[in-house]
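Forwarding the complex inputs:
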Amino acid sequence: MMNTWIYARNLVVGLWIVFKRTFTKPVTVQYPEEQPYLPPRWRGRIVLTRDPDGEERCVACYLCSAACPVDCISLQAADNPEAHERRYPEFFRINFSRCIYCGMCEEACPTNAIQLIPDFEQSEYARRNLVYEKEDLLISGTGKYHDYNFYRMAGVRTRDKDKGEGEHELPPVDVKSLMP
Amino acid sequence: MATIIVDNKSYTVDEQQNVLAACLGHGLNVPYFCWHPAMGSVGACRQCAVKQFKDDRDQSGRLVMSCMTPATNGTRISIDDPEAKAFRASVIEWLMVNHPHDCPVCDEGGECHLQDMTVMTRHVYRRYRYQKRTHRNQALGPFIRHEMNRCIQCYRCVRYYRDYAGGRDLNVFGSHDAVYFGREQDGTLENEFSGNLVEVCPTGVFTDKTFFHHYTRKWDLQAAQSICPHCSLGCNTTAGERSGTLRRITNRFNSQVNGYFLCDRGRFGYEYVNSPHRIKRAVVRPDCDRTKPGQPEEVPQAIEIAADRLRRARGVVGLGSPRASLEANVALRSLVDPQHFYQGVDEQERQLLSTILKIFQTGPVPSASIHDAEQSDAVFVLGADLLNEAPRLALALLQSIRQEPMEQVDELKIPRWDEAAVRNAVQNRRGPLFLAGYQRTWFHEYATDTYFAAPDDIARLGFAVAGSIGQGTPSVPDLSPEVKDLTQRIAEALTHAQRPLIIAGTKSGSQATIEAAANVAWALHQQGKQPRLSFVLPECNSAGLALLGGGRLNDAFDAIRQGKADTVIVLENDLYRRAEAANVDAFLETAQTVVVIDSVEHRTTAHADVLLPSATGPESDGTFVNQEGRAQRFYQVFVPDGDVKESWRWLSELGRATSQEGGSESGVAAWRNFDDAVSATATAAPALARIGEVAPSASFRLVGQKVPRQSERYSGRTSLISHLTMHEPPPPVDHDSPLGFTMEGYRGPLPSPLISQFWAPGWNSIQAVNTYQDEVGGPLRDEMPGVRLIEPVATKASGWFTTIPRAFQPTAHQWLLLPLSAVFGSDELSNRSPAIAERIGKPFLSLHPSDGARLTLEDHSTVDLVLQGTTYRLVVHLDPSTPVGTAGLSLVPEVSGVSMPAWVDLLKAIQTEHKRRAA
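Prediction (whole assembly, two chains):
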């Protein structure tokens, strides 16, 4: 007898909750017509950015590929004699079918070149379309970090910066001088 | 042995060492920069400070530099003392004040001693807010890149380059915080051992330029033990590969052979592996028509065509090679039957090698390793130009001349590791080093006495020295007073030494020189000394080929000419380097079928009817026997692309294809993996019986696992080939060695040949080798330094060599043409490396000034010389060290086909002289 009362009450309470919901705003979003808000630091698709001067930021240091827990980044360093000690990736490949969007590459990157952006729309019918080369990864902007230019800080000579012209650098030493 | 107390724990150490070395030997991490196990301590960088206590009641203690503190019994130190830690932290902070912010673009990054030490001392945050001093870099030639901003002024480079390697053109300039390490002006670093700067420099001031052009981090290299194929010394190297290209060679410590250093030929000569002239496909000449060029062919068809020709052959001639592995030579010998196997070297070389073997096998004096050479206290070199023929041995002799003065250092009670004090005590005193040869190099400046003469006169000097040392040794008549004097001086120095070393070369082709060297060593042995004997051989596996034995090259030529055989198999050999072009042409043209197995294109491969692409050293497993008689294993570093296979595997397949109709497989046809090759090699000749002990066999496992060739942090596994295929194929399986082409497998202590790269937690640079040794500078743990195949059995010499040549007499019209080796240029394979090719000099003819006057030739003039039917354009060098009546011809690629020594009428042979002076 007691149980019957309990069942009836639960039934009524449940129906009441359902009835109440008919007057609240639904959480479902009409994706893709309606786009959700993703904060700028959301970890989605990976891009390679450029420095404020418009040059590639990636210096092919291999730290992202070393940090990648699924080993889905590969690259090859190449030099451009005209740009002096400035280094570029000859190729830069990310296999997004393996990527877990952990952001370790971004954390490892010493030049702010590799960045994860709030874009997750990477569905493909063929896995091979998820292999991104440098042309696919490189964007024309600076991404999240606007001001940083590695070569302004680094001590090496580049096309547009001689020794001693970087930040916090003295002019090159004259070895033949005897002055203290 | 002494006991020292470090942080209240006692350790047993060698009291001859300093505290730093003792601590490192026990795995205690003390940071350091200026100290190097091979170069001792100078106490310059102040990084290795520890606290020393008088006794157990001393609570305050004092800071000392551990590299300058002897590890005497009862020494009580603390590494973890807060004051010592703070001191070390401030030292590295000072050193980093000017260090640029460029690790991401620095080639040293990831294997940088400075990075390791910075992490070890926990310097993580830059407090210095002011500006950094900068330096301009220099262009230092094709081998080394220079980035002076990174320098931390430890002085290791100049100590190595000037004090250890005898270089002159690198120095330190400037003053205070602006000292500069470089050359006086831009230019190529001249020293033959400059490449070691890359490893000696604790940071990225000097980096490998060849590596720069295809850069990869250390952790991304697939690596394995390799043996340098560029001379007969057999230095151990670590070869690193990524994406199918060999990226670099680094030194691999072997306490008995090369220790911490390599020569530049060995370090930078590796790029022949990546050469565009590599043979990658099997090539068959269609329809046996010699007028048509060869066409690429599928492997099974190529094998079938070759096997068909071999089956129908009237007789097969197999030509072995001193640069092919022992296993490959044994495979060929087994395929063609031992009586049809010929050593692919000229007759003179074969004779010399068999004499050398006889000297070691029947004589009482053992051969010398490079380590023995470093320890010897008197050296006599007969006819070998070490700097150009066996550079690492010359570097060892630069250390041996310190042995005799060291006795005075010991008397002064100065520890041997105290480098600055030792140099002060020694001053310019040098131990005895006598060099007899016919080409002057900078190395001669370190000699006690030099003697430049024709090979016969050098041999006479050797015989004369033996005559005045030993009893019953033949004496030499008609010596000039000067030579008699020199003989006395040499004999005296050698008899005063405890561990004298006699070295002779084979390049001059003089049998008498070799016999004279043996007489000297045997005479010293008779006097109760412990002499060692060393011969510089022409190529990396010359000794192995000699131990294996085989017929004469001329007999092979005769067999084809007389029609006893009509098919030739040439194994990794350019015959045009072995014999006169006309003879080789006739030989290859008369043969019905020429099968060539080789890795790079050369003149012999152009004649091949069937050309099979063989693997180079880093692409194959094999064994080389060095000039000391030490067999050493090299491992396959990577699986090559194309049809490339190990030579022995091609020969094994040919064996199976030819014996298909015969039924059961025997000999080489039955080989399935490298272990089969090794066991067949062990039975091929009595001297090779121990070849299986050289390194662990393919079935060797640790905890049931193979040993990985890749580091734990090998990257890009899932994307390296994802542009080609989305499937991730399993890594290749290695049936030939205990190593795997993966990053998975056993990690822990390993027998030394299986170590892929030296690495330990906190020690990413090559200095990690300290952590592989029980005693710093000593042998590796579980070291397998190779097997010495020849040890003396006799206790005394059975008899003396008595064939003393007559003194060399210059003649009116004939000059004795002698080969002058060149460190860059004389080796067949390293010449293919672009960096080495840049250093190869122009071919020159060296004459004594008086001969130059007789021929009316000016220094630096250009001449056309007709030799053995070919015209060579040569620059004339008038050099007083060239013996009168002889002419030296530099062995660079342009003149590689000239057989020497030979008598030449220069008056006729020099056809035209270009009066213009070469630049």
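Residues 123-274 of chain B form one domain.
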